[in-house]
Amino acid sequence: LLFFISLQSKSQSLYFPPLLGNAWDTISPASLGWCPERIDSLYNYLEQANSKAFIVLKDGKIVLEKYFGTFTQDSLWYWASAGKTITSFLIGKAQEQNYLSLKDTSSKYLGIGWTNCTRQQEDSISIRHQLTMTTGLDDGVSDNHCTDAACLIYKAPAGTRWAYHNAPYTLLEKVITTATAQNINVYTQSALKTKTGMTGLWVTVDYDNVYYSKPRSMARFGLLLQNNCVWNMDTLLHDSVYIDNMLNASQQLNYAYGYLTWLNGNGSYMIPSSQIVFPGSYAPAAPADMYAAIGKNGQIVSIAPSKGLVVVRMGNANEGEVPFLLCDNIWQRLNYVMCNST
Q: What count of other Cβ atoms lies within 10 Å of the Cβ of residue 76?
């Protein structure tokens, strides 16, 4: 009961924009004690980094919102791997609705022979392994986006090796559609979009499933995550254990990874295409409790519950598959705007 009351009061202290239309309350940086004269330096950096959209929410209200070049509030852009965190939410919802269980073997939904492994190796891979990037399949193949069985080769026992591998993640879409007997866009609409006012669409690009939306839809998703999957008193995902695993270390191999979500401040982290465990945080300038959906070319929705902040960035940045440095640089400059540093 106390947990529910605290969640309820927390939810009431956050602002949620209406489900329909463009109305969204704002709050001035000056009223928060920020340094407005420093905002231009942040925007100049973002422009130089080929940004298209940038939004900062404080307790749900818009503090900063900036569009660059010909990009506008109504322009569409891709989430890249930031969309993985949407998929994480959808898997949690599908489990809550008894369509599937994380313990289920992936082959239950993908069919026997979805990999190039032996039957025993394949049967040891579960949905949970796909969610945590621990399938044990080889991410070092020539195209780790390739979802063909011939590309999905055994490397290590499932659950023993963390590797950022796109193909097993991508196949979670087929897990969802098989389990729910619904098209991925239809299921996303009912499970997420109608309840949050998000818009957007999954599109198949080569092997990948890519989510496209307006920038404010990304901000809405960040706000939902900030409030533990409760939208303005409407609980979209009741499974607190699942949410806990989504937003905390989900395995013992890479402490910076939950369920398809990047976690800051856990003491160490791994990066794509490497088995090195790096000490520290991937975004040291960000609060320790920050977690993020991060995609290629700098598609970022970064949530810092302790600060009440959601930070959204869309655009182009030639910085690898998961641009940690860009994420950290944005937080450095945002700290400066918040008068936290000189």
A: 14
DSSP string, 37-55: GGHHHHHHHHHHTTEEEEE
H helices within 78-237, ranges in order?
84-96, 107-110, 119-123, 127-132, 166-170, 172-180, 184-188, 194-196, 215-226
Which residues in the chain belong to E strands, given as ranges?
Answer: 51-58, 61-67, 77-78, 201-205, 208-213, 230-231, 234-235, 262-263, 268-269, 278-279, 291-295, 299-304, 309-315
Cβ-Cβ contacts under 8 Å for 54 (sequence gap 6 or more): 43, 46, 64, 65, 66, 67, 68, 312, 313, 314
Task: Using alpha carbons, select from 74, 96, 44, 65 the residue that is nearest to residue 333.
Answer: 44
CA separation for the pair 296, 287 (Å, rounded): 22
DSSP-based helix, strand, coil % in the chain, nearest 5: 35, 20, 45
Query: How many Cα neighbours within 13 Å face the side chain of 38?
Result: 16
d(CA 236, CA 184): 17
Residue 235: which residues within 8 A CB-CB, separation 6 or more?
Answer: 229
185-206 average pLDDT score:
98
What letter does residue 340 receive in the DSSP assignment? S
Could you tell me which residues come within 8 angstroms of residue 117 by beta carbon, excluding any fewer than 6 positions away? 125, 137, 152, 153, 154
What is the 8-class DSSP label of residue 312?
A: E
- Residues β-bridged to residue 311: 56, 302
Rounded Cα–Cα distance for residues 110 and 107 (Å): 5
Q: What is the pLDDT of residues 32-72, one digit of tens each?
A: 999 999 999 999 999 999 999 999 999 999 999 999 999 99
Mean predicted lDDT score pLDDT of the chain = 95
Residue 44 near residue 308 (C-beta atoms within 8 A): no
